[in-house]
């Protein structure tokens, strides 16, 4: 395990099905200095969601926390609310946020020194295949592929670094290296 002195925030965004959740889990497993923020959502649990993937709540609970200022960022996406809880300070630990690009925009406004990475599938056909494989129906998969095009444009506008996930282990290695380099630049 790796432990680092410098505390940074890493924003990992990308379309659903690109593999950012799998990458995030792999990064946290290999780096004890990296903590994954657990987002809240109003969407129903999917068959492939791990028990700790999200804090699943109803809309009223989400809106109450939002009203209390309990999210560093939040967004509504395809009819469901998603939010990143305001983190507790943990000196020396790095916070990994797995959020959409709209949430990344909010974080950029608050934490311009964060590292912003956009994970993408090699192409839209592969993205759709992955979405269907994880249980999305065809209509939902098509909506997510359409949304991915918009997200790519917004990520480019915000200066995200794009990472294509065409080989999971190589992508995890690449992202780990980018985080390492970002930490080193802040020391």
Number of strands: 9
The biggest beta sheet is recorded as: 5 strands, parallel
**Share of helix among residues?**
40-55%
The CATH C-level class name of the domain at 9-37 and 91-186:
Alpha Beta
How many alpha or pi helices? 6
Distance between the termini: 19 Å
* Element pattern in H and E: EHEEEHEEEHEHHEH
The rough form would be described as globular
Amount of beta strand? 15-25%
Strand order of the largest sheet: 2-7-1-8-9
CATH fold-level name of the domain at 9-37 and 91-186: Rossmann fold
Q: Quick one: CATH superfamily of the domain at 9-37 and 91-186?
A: P-loop containing nucleotide triphosphate hydrolases
The CATH architecture of the domain at 9-37 and 91-186 is 3-Layer(aba) Sandwich
Query: Which whole number gives the mean pLDDT?
Result: 89
Quaternary status of these chains? single chain
